[in-house]
Amino acid sequence: MLKFDLRAPTTLLGVFLLFALLILVLFEQLAHGVDGTVQLLDNAFALPSWQEPLGTDQFGRSNLARLSAAIQISLWMSLLCVITAATLGTVAGIAAAWLRGWVDASIGFVVNVLMALPGLILVLLIGALFPGSFTALYIAISLVLWVEFFRVVRAQTLSLLASPEIEASRLYGFGPLYLFRRHLLPRLLPSLLPLACFGAGNAILALASIGFVYVGLQPPRAELGLMMVELFPYYSDAPWVLAQPVLCVFALILSFNLIAGGFRHDH
Amino acid sequence: MIINIENLFIRSEDQILVENLSLTVQSGRPMTILGETGSGKSLLANAIVGILPTGLSQEGLISLFGRADLSLAERQALWGREIAVLPQEPWLALNPIMPLQEQVREVGELVMGQSDDQSRRRSTSLLHKLGLAKDHAKIPSQLSGGMAQRGAFAAATYAGAQLLIADEPTKGLDASRRDQIGAMLKQHGQQGALLTITHDVQLAAQIGGDIMVMRQGQVLEQGSAQEVLNAPKSDYAKALINAQSDRWPLRAQRPTGENQLIVRGLSKQRGGKTLFRDWDFEVRRGEVLGLCGDSGCGKSTLADLLLGLVKADSGQIKATVPFGPQQCLKLYQDPPSAFAPGVTLGQLLEDLIRLHKLDRQPIGPLMQQLKLDPGLLARSASGVSGGELQRFAILRALLMQPKLLVADEPTSRLDPITAREVTELLVDAARSSGCTLLLISHDSGAMQRVCDRILQFTPDRPLLSEPLLGARAQQCA
């Protein structure tokens, strides 16, 4: 059966990193209470202090508040995208494998069209058409992510539908819902969960990438990629400020990738 | 003395897998280790060759060719030249994309350093001797199980190793193939040294020499083949010998029922190969009909056709009384693969009862009849043994009161004692519920004693026979 193995040190590190970032957000929300949009120009690039544990940026805004807002946006975005993509990909994958024929062919066609252009280009394109829109980016990233879920689910469902266990249940008269709940889902989850973790990492990377080229969310919103590009001109004056969003993106993606490796399939 | 083992223990972290084993193997005196799967027999072979899986430790003395202090590198130098291992299920050990002769010839080239010409000549003559002359250019997927087995034998013995270790050499082979491989092993055992590991009593009898009976890592008895096989001392050895299919009690009955299925002009091709063409036969109500034939001949396909799972190319199958829904069911070869993962067997039974609003009353007596412990219902398919799961599968099928039950090699993955028990329970249960049973098996000995009629696959037509007379005659003789 599917297990999440916390004993491996890499998995433990992944979970620890994610928790550390969540605690940073929690601390900011509960104990800090500074508005990240308020500018204090004479306080630009202030060094860390008790009031501002992570210092301030080029406009004197609180780094902690902005970082926390940016992490929240990244996490919400990845969560929404992964849930959408996993649901869409699973439903479409099972439908294609089950019904075959024109359903399989038409979904396959859509998938091939989507795969024909690099995922990030599609996100860039939609980001450029609807500047600064969270919803547009959410749809764009989900559109790129679901393809992988579809492919994996379709391939596995095809072989599962030919397996003795499903043939037996069909002979006994069980319907599609039962086959999904008892046979398909337990067999698919071991591949879906790691895929979801990788998907979350990819969503965060995509959001930061297009933020970095000014096509994603717009200022004054705090977003990790956007923060990097805004702080980039000051890299020699305040490298430690630029390092903060860079480290955050790194930690987020690393944690999801490490967590993905923790799922074990036991018999 | 080729092999001399004294007080060998093999341990994993938490259990003893082989306990205090001592044996010797000499040239001209074959040694056979007999026991069920999982009794530590294969580990012994690994330990001798020097490839014990990591995590296991061994203790005691293993000396080969009179030397006890061989390092792994020294043992590796013996592989092929002095020690040959005939693997289990050789069709998996052969290279799937290389012609047979190439695989045999490679041994000459790579192990013995022969020239291309030399190795070609020797491999040709070796294949010829084993009756594979015509098949030298075939790749493993084009070979039958028996041919692959002989091909692997050719490769393993090419370099003229003195010691041959055969690990379950007859697994999955039918009786005629088993006799062939047995003859090959016997011949080797007369000249060189032979250590055979098997659960097949008939193979052990054929090879002769000495026999050691093992169960759960313990040696139960040992002695000459005649002694052990004719007068076994331990209960386990007795049970194992009695579980051989030619000793099963006769279960066949004279078929009497009227026709249930009438098959006319049935044809089916698969992958370009004609499995059967224009077949006519009948299935009688309530009989036990055996389907017999080589692997890959289309037994399972024929059964799937009768169940309506596969469509025929032409011809028709007519039921004299139409089947209701869920009255044609199937038992599978590998029981764990036929059950949903991660839920208890009780839950699966509950699902079925709720779906069809079944009566719970027959469950108790049926479980008793099938010797199923109620405690099993709290476990999942992966938590019970293969025999228990297959009996649970029979329970599940009989609850539906089926009219036709197909059992596709239902016991080939079970050890002989369990196989006998499950087959007997299956046949008795099917008979007492008046269900027609279609039994697919490569164990023709068992079929002869259990089936009312046997349908033998031949190239042109189905050959129907009633084994009852033959089996009775055998019993009297």
From TrEMBL, chain A:
Coiled-coil positions: none
ABC transmembrane type-1 domain segment(s): 71-260
Domain of life (superkingdom): Bacteria
Transmembrane regions: 73-97, 109-130, 136-153, 192-217, 237-260
Subcellular location: Cell membrane
Keywords: Cell membrane, Membrane, Transmembrane, Transmembrane helix, Transport
Protein name: ABC transporter permease
Matching InterPro entries: BP-dependent_transpt_permease (IPR050366), MetI-like (IPR000515), MetI-like_sf (IPR035906)
From TrEMBL, chain B:
Domain ABC transporter: 3-241, 261-476
Main localization of the protein described in the UniProt heading: membrane
Keyword Transport: yes
Keyword annotations: ATP-binding, Cell membrane, Membrane, Nucleotide-binding, Transport
Superkingdom assignment: Bacteria
Topological type in the membrane: Peripheral membrane protein
Presence of keyword Thylakoid: no
Entry-linked SUPFAM superfamilies: P-loop containing nucleoside triphosphate hydrolases (SSF52540)
Protein name as it appears in the record: ABC transporter ATP-binding protein
GO molecular function per UniProt: ATP binding
Compartments in which it is found: Cell inner membrane
